[in-house]
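Minutes, project check-in

Agenda point 3 was the complex the collaborators sent over. CS summarized: two entities, 1039 residues total, and the question is how they sit relative to each other. Sequences were read into the notes so everyone works from the same version.
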Amino acid sequence: MIKKTTFKRRDFLKLLGAGAAAGSSVSPIFSQLSPLAFAGDDTSDKKILVVLELSGGNDGLNTLVPYGDDAYYRHRPTLGIKPNKLRKIDDHFGFNPDMSGMERLFKDGKMAVFHGCGYDQPSYSHFTSMAYWQTAAPNSGESLGWVGRLADALDPNVTANYLVNVDATQSLAVVAKNHVPVVFDDPKEFGRKGLFNSRPLLDKDRVATSNSSQAQRRLLELAKSARQASEKVRSACENYSTPIDYGIAPLDLNKIAALINADMNTRLYYTSFRRNAFDTHVQQPNLHQRLLTYFSDAVSGFFSDMERIGRADDVVMLVFSEFGRRVAENTNLGTDHGTANNMYLIGNSVKGGHYGDLPSLTALTDGNMQHTTDFRQVYATAISGWLGLESHEQVLRYRFKEFPVFS
Amino acid sequence: MECYEHTIKNIRGNIDLFYNFLPSTAEELMNAKLKKIITIATTMLAVACLTPNSWADTDWADDLTAISENDWSYEKARHLVERAGFGDIPINIERLATMGPRAAVRELVYFHSIPSTLPDFDHSGIHDSGIEPFPASRPAATKLAKETGEAIGVKVKPEGNRRLQPVVDRFFYWLRSSMLETRRVAHWWANRMLLTKRPLEEKMTLFWHGHFATNEEKVRDYRKLLNQNQVFRAHGTGNFKDLLIAVSQDPAMLAFLDAGVNIKGSPNENFAREIMELFTMGVGNYSEQDIREAARAFTGWNFTDLQFVVNASEHDTSNKTFLGRTGAWDGLDIIDMILEKPVTAEYIAGKIYKFFVREEITPELQKELGASFYSSGYEITPLLEKIFLSKDFYSPASMGTHIKSPVELVISTYKKLGLDVVPGVPDFYDTTESLGQILLFPPTVAGWAGGRSWITPGLLLARGNFVYDTVFPNINFLPSDRYPENYQIGVVAERLATGADIATATQPEDSYATSASNNMVDRDEEFNTRLGSYRGWRMAIERVKPISRTPARLNLTKMVLAAKCTNTEEVVDYLTKRFFTISIDQDTKKLIADFLEKQLGTNNIIDAQTFSEEAVRETFHLLLSLPEYQLG
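CS then shared the predicted structure for the full assembly.
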């Protein structure tokens, strides 16, 4: 990230290379395109965004329960969680029973909850809706992920290892035009096996020849970045241990902690609660409570760990799911795909509290809530308010009204 | 430089033909000098064609007309076998190369005349009727046990501590043993892919598995996944309508998509949605209302154990309006109406094309293939034959540009090595998992994204590691079907053996236990889930037959000597021709040949043969670690 104080004209022109004509005079539009206009101080280049995806369509209504709204209990005679079981955070909302970590984070003022997040003409398909959230292009076709585009916009120099995705396969969210995301799952496996004698050739970066096909070219690039990334990731994870308890399912936040601790160049991390775990169509209560416990433990464990290593001021986490669930319970003690849901921004720098209008639980469309907040507003808040890219439309295609979460 | 050789061959072949047709007097007139000029001209032409795209086939892309017999070559036969199957050893490709395209494609596509002698799956015998119906969750199992005194064929203890423990043990036993047995099914299938004389049969089974993706993790019954696998095999190259009905009425899919809880008055949309979105028409060709109506039509579809049943009392018999038509539709009617739409044929044909040919398909080509598929009445074999004979299939855009999926990579490597059994070390499940694809456990009902998503930096390294693990089998290998992934139950086992009480034995490890989830484990005195997890695992590995842990039996020296290699350059040339589907640049090949020479202390592989195996294997690992090896 280019610090404001070391900004040079040739850097500025380099940034414009992709978009505006290089020869154009300095005009007002350039300030829109410049990623340098952040309000932060010089520590801004240490800011990290961790995106946590809860896959499967988490039931927001049973996560942060609006116990103060009777309609909730009318729609959910069996599934509704009684007020005395909840972890109340105020006189309207309470967290699902075992989410002690999330409750504490909210009460410490480190959690912003965004209500009614969704988009127009919502899709009820996991893959489609998740793809919309991952590309920030609802009801549109887009092959690049929003986090990938964000990396390209924030870092035109294409710094190595800028974008890390902890997963078995690359998430659509991190597919970028210029950056090659470092994707790994098990850090121990993220290293090449090879005998001593063959190392020089194995690790040799080969270049494409004029005869190389497009497919060949791409593979050669990937091989190069693989080698560089693997060394860093492996040593970061090897050199890290923590007494903090992340619970039963750390959601790879402990691996992210290891990389943050090792001061990798990485600014953007993406991880998920995988395999559509939250798709609770049947027998929801116990399963969902368990999942939320794991989630809460992992997130609070992560932030405790950040405190421990002194990086808590540098890290903000964004949590989302591809849709909420229908307001009424179904007859299988579960819930079906719905629409609006909560999103969270969590961190020391977050001004905690509720944001966005509560969606009505009575004025429903086909049994589903009307969203009150476009989910991209929360993305924009993170992009501009936290990461300092004022012109978030570079990433999101349009401007969105941000929330005053970061002063 | 395959195009170079091919074009030269082609042109020279044509020139020879030309000479043969000349009257003898004319031939006398053709003096040596003229012949020389023509030879120079062909060389120049060939030089002009020093690009990956042969000037002769650049306009073959998107052309579905059949290639001619003259167009056939070893490279094309190799390409066909790579795509329609899992690749093969040179001698088998040569046989197909001499047959000409029509006969070669015919043999691969119309395979039913080739006998199939592969063994059926050998069950471990982990299931018994008491397990049915298996409860939806552990809490459901213990609730049932508390209410009725029994669940999963196990009674509640009348007295004492942890009265429900046996039920919980049984619950985890079935989860663990079914999971392990499913891995055995995948291993059995991998052997089929390796050994079958009908490669397209297994390749199509693999395709349909990715298309009608169900995951044992949710289904929790290996038998259903095995039966579904048989459905794919039996109908995979037949008629798509038959296949679609068979899959939709198969318990694996019904379980996976919650069909059983889709009943009159309480429709569950999962099944209807995925049938339309993923299995037939694709997004944008129906409305949300169509899904809701279709769900009602499918009500009553269920399964009992391994049988499809229609529960008439749970079927909604009233009218539904689906895709603009109203009637008292049932599930089969919905399927018919879906198939009536040409877009279904386009969607399926397009998917088949992307799997076998390449990712980029123009809308026009997709329409053309779809129309062809539709007018045939959804017959799959003619569609495949058309694709495999097409110029498009053999165009430069299609040859050597497919990124092999993990399963394709592993099986084709074993096949090209000439193995007669899938090695037990490295473990097939472990390997494919590290590469991002586990048979019978696809990540979601959308299957695997495929294409470029198979390659990330980490995955590229893992692919190289697979080759290493094959030629240098890990002597520290721990079979994951014996050692639990959850190390904590290993700790439980040790503590119990030392005489610890259950509460102590099942405490979490030394980390500061602040998390709520770890404290929950022993909360209920009626049972202990961690104990159940340990016992379930133990009982599972007692019952599930072990996978044989023989590594690959390799003799790469013998292989290259049998191919008449005499020096290190020839060894590298031979290995690249045998294993790769594209050519590797001379500089790289030279580097690797020099490497081999350095390890051997000589250039002469014949002289070195008594001690060359280590070095040849190391060279093999180097070679197959090249990024280009991912292309098929």
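Noted in discussion: Chain B has a mean pLDDT of 89.
Follow-up: revisit at the next meeting once the mutant set is ready.
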